[in-house]
């Protein structure tokens, strides 16, 4: 496969770049942070999204150095934003972790080193792990996440609600944020939303809050969705309604407007 064999050289040549999508507080609309989303500027094919190359990188193991680069670069960027924004405005960075990175022994030390080099506090970092990656996870897999959580790093359960995980299982996971899958947000498109969808989200939010977990919703495309999700008690939102993923400078401007 051409793309697969081109991956290592692409990393060496600096062909990957990161776009940032803001995370917005539903209560007051302020920008609280951003999710880092990697892209590949391929010399022949142009910009490729993660769906095109993350599975290949996972298959070959290149996801470990690539994921480390994404973490390093986005934490460095977050440190720069913090410096410009001042400490009155704690700005957080969300970074996706692939299951292969979880089983790599260097994860905890790499994260510590990266935060230290950038002068960023662990509390400013949120690592997103998909629900399906943690279904049936044994203690060996959870250990590095527990250590990171003890340091103050937030762990978010990404795409939550699609993995059919046992809800009671949540208590065992070192997570502090549930990221509700986009399919729930899609159910809020009409106003009023489908009553069954409303009940499901209401139940998830109430369970999450009773376990001291914050709820982030993704895929918010309209003001009506944002309003219904706010009323349901969701804490933070992300989606095209606020901003598409974009270059770091644009995000800085957004954050300043709201500061
Ligand atoms: O960028 P886009 O909005 O198309 O994201 C598509 C998927 O790619 C999302 O599920 C996201 O979690 C994943 N993704 C984006 N960046 C990264 C990354 O740096 N590492 C991993 N493992 N997944 C990523
Ligand atoms: O990690 P995750 O797969 O959840 O990454 C977010 C993905 O969702 C990215 O592919 C991003 O481009 C996409 N996305 C972000 N906001 C919206 C939105 O409002 N609507 C839709 N359809 N997709 C979105
Ligand atoms: Mn994500
Ligand atoms: Na997601």
UniProtKB/TrEMBL annotation:
Signal peptide: none annotated. Transmembrane segments: none annotated. Residues 1-259 form the EAL domain. This is Diguanylate cyclase (GGDEF)-like protein/PAS domain S-box-containing protein. It comes from Streptomyces rishiriensis. The chain holds residues 451 to 709 of 711 of the full protein.
